[in-house]
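The record is kept unedited without comment:

——
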Amino acid sequence: MNPQKYFITGIGTNVGKTIASAIVTEALQAHYWKPVQAGDLHQTDTHTVKALISNTKTVFYPEAYRLNTPASPHAAAKIDGIEIKLSDFKLPPSPNNLVIEGAGGLMVPLNNTNLVIDLIAQLNVEVILVSQNYLGSINHTLLSIELLKSRNIPVKGIIFNGEPVPETENFILNHSGLPCILRIGLEKEITKKTVLKYAKQILYI
């Protein structure tokens, strides 16, 4: 069986991509790669995922770009005096399952021409979409799904994060025809134990 490769993206910023990435990484005992880290270089998303998983098989690949400013990658790169080039992104030579965590949402610019969705298309991997329940999330989630479909990018399913809103979630699932991979509830603290608990709930991937 070929290793699974998933690009975890969200319907926006701060919707729970890193926690979802840790859970999927744990569930698959996958390797992990964050192509672009913008800001928080002392505590990157790679550091966070590494601190949250329990398995010993995961390998963490270095970011292609480490940018100093917590901003859109194209703006953070400009501040650092560099330009992000799509040609610089190559899938790590992972013999294992691989989880790739994106930056922001699909339409986040990497440079003046390319967006995160262009990176996904170039890497030719399947997407897991993270949706957080808030006013407007139906619109943002369905727009993200339509955009992915328009580019013929396969979507494995949706992870819902935060306080459950069944009416919202059911509408999104019914309208999109996509399955729910996992529901992450409100947690006082995210720990290794929390991640392991949710990892055991994932059966679909």
Notes: The chain is about 35% helix and 20% strand. Residues 13-132+140-191 form a domain with the Rossmann fold fold (CATH 3.40.50.300). The chain has a mean pLDDT of 96.
